[in-house]
Design goal:
single chain; alpha+beta; four-stranded antiparallel β-sheet; 54% helix
Length: 508
């Protein structure tokens, strides 16, 4: 055997002692520890990289939200920042308007809108997104129309008021202005980032007002509309006595087997009660002029359908009387017609300064010191008012009605003897309102008709300019669009489905 073969054989036959095994285990443990260290180092690098990437993605997400297209409306790229701005405006406005009713419907304004059902196919989040897109679509269409018409408008005054009101709200909430913007308008919102959208909204609103002024109904159009719809605007005075029949109450009886039954009054008993009520009504008719309850200034919409047709009959004359049976209600109405007329109550034009600084009386003193003129009041509106709604009109509220104002304001504005130039400072819910009375406006009925006609006209106008302002959502973010598409597909399918010829259930 060679020396080489011998050495290999001896090595293979060598006895492995306990010590040898101990040394081997130590070497294996050291090798495992080394591997674990290497793995830990690699994992550590990965975790560190993830943290760095996460931190780096914050400005990336903010940039994407401000610059990337979220949806497209009428060819305009809408970013997430702009979408969130309109979403929060739409949802807060809706909740503020219908909050009381929503609570009865089980809607939780503090909860997750996405987990609350608006309908079988949409959540409240989906619905608020639909409202947001509707507003975006309308504003974009108005702004496009404004640019096409060469319309320009300085929004600086309104934006300044908006910015100041945001600062005030943030301070009242104990939040920084930046955090207030994020909480109110969306997580990516900033003061500078929202400015163009706020200003664009004011431009759209200004152009809408401009078009509305051009399309306002003329005096002749208002009169023609009234002539065709007199019943909706005329008022009537009448006297009324109601005579209810004394119908026997249902009786609970127990038969010989111990069964409890309810016995309703018979037709004969009901008729007897109605006959007795008719006799009372005949007697009441003789004294209706003296004993009837007066109802004055009643519009048709506010009168019972049981007898309003009689009152508004063109043939009706002063002093006419009648008895009208209400078989379902088991009663008779005894009526006397007094008169029908068009109420000529005037509206009012006022200027308003609204301020939360509690300095209403000081503003009045400054107004008097400045000469107590309307121009002086307008300057104070620009200086002090926090009312964004009327800012562009220098605090003007035109043609207000008595029922459109807070009762305290209404009492002052419509107080008998009120004259142009009168002023007052009133406080409501911690806000001071300084009012300047300009004078009477058109009668309420004319304003009501003008608003009805203008609403229809502007609705048609908006439909027209929005017609080509389509919404594109290539990434499928908007559920309501999918719901609409499914509904339209179903409608088209039903419309094109061929009629069943000779199918089951058809008469031969």
């Amino acid at each position: 055997m060679s020396e080489k073969g011998k050495s290999q054989n001896e090595a293979s036959q060598k006895i492995v002692t306990r010590y040898d095994r101990k040394v081997q285990r130590r070497k294996e443990e050291e090798l495992k520890a080394k591997k674990r260290k290497q793995i830990s180092r690699v994992v550590g690098i990965v975790i560190l990289a993830a943290i760095v990437i996460g931190l780096a993605s914050i400005p990336v997400r903010n940039y994407a939200a401000s610059h990337s297209t979220y949806i497209t409306v009428g060819g305009h790229d809408i970013t997430k920042v702009e979408f969130d701005y309109y979403y929060n405006l739409a949802s807060s406005d809706y909740i503020n308007t219908y909050g009381t009713y929503l609570a009865y419907m089980g809607f939780n304004a503090s909860g997750d809108y996405a987990s609350q059902a608006y309908s079988d196919t949409m959540s409240w989040k989906d619905y608020f997104e639909q409202l947001a897109v509707d507003t975006i679509r309308q504003n974009k269409a108005l702004v496009d129309a404004a640019h096409a018409a060469g319309f320009t408008y300085d929004t600086s005054q309104e934006y300044a008021a908006f910015a100041e009101s945001a600062k005030t709200a943030a301070a009242a909430a104990g939040e920084s202005l930046n955090r207030y913007y994020k909480l109110t308008f969306g997580r990516y919102s900033t003061v500078s980032g929202l400015k163009p959208y706020v200003e664009e909204g004011y431009l759209a609103s200004a152009y809408y007002k401009h078009v509305a002024e051009e399309k306002a109904a003329s005096a002749d159009e208002i009169q023609a509309y009234y002539d065709e719809n007199k019943e909706s605007y005329d008022s009537v005075d009448y006297k009324l006595t109601e005579i209810s029949a004394e119908i026997p109450e249902a009786q609970t009886v127990t038969d010989e087997n111990g069964n409890v039954n309810t016995v309703e009054p018979t037709e004969e008993e009901i008729q007897a009660a109605m006959d007795a009520a008719k006799e009372e009504a005949d007697a009441a008719l003789l004294v209706i002029a003296e004993e009837g309850t007066e109802h004055n200034g009643m519009l048709r919409a506010n009168i019972s359908s049981k007898y309003r047709d009689w009152l508004f009959d063109e043939a009706r004359k002063e002093g006419d009387t009648t008895i009208i049976e209400d078989a379902d209600g088991h009663k008779y109405y005894v009526l006397q017609f007094v008169k029908r007329y068009l109420e000529d109550t005037a509206t009012a034009d006022v200027r308003v300064i609204a301020t939360t600084a509690g300095n209403g009386e000081d503003i009045l003193a400054e107004y008097n010191a400045a000469g107590a003129t309307e121009d002086a009041f307008i300057e104070l509106v620009r200086k002090y008012s926090e009312d964004n709604y009327s800012m562009s009109e220098d605090g003007l509220y035109k043609e207000v009605t008595s029922n459109s104002l807070n009762s305290a304001f209404s009492e002052w504005v419509f107080e008998e003897g009120r004259k142009p130039g009168d002023t007052v400072s009133l406080v409501q819910d911690g806000t001071s309102f300084v009012l300047y009375y300009i004078g009477e406006g058109r009668p309420e009925w004319q304003v009501s008709i003008a608003n009805t006609l203008l609403s229809e006209t502007m609705s048609n106008y908006l439909d027209e300019i929005k017609e080509g302002c389509e919404v594109s959502d290539p990434k499928g973010r908007l559920v309501y669009l999918k719901v609409q598409a499914a509904a339209n597909a179903g409608s088209d399918s039903q419309a094109t489905e061929p009629a069943d010829e000779g199918g089951e259930g058809q008469a031969e």
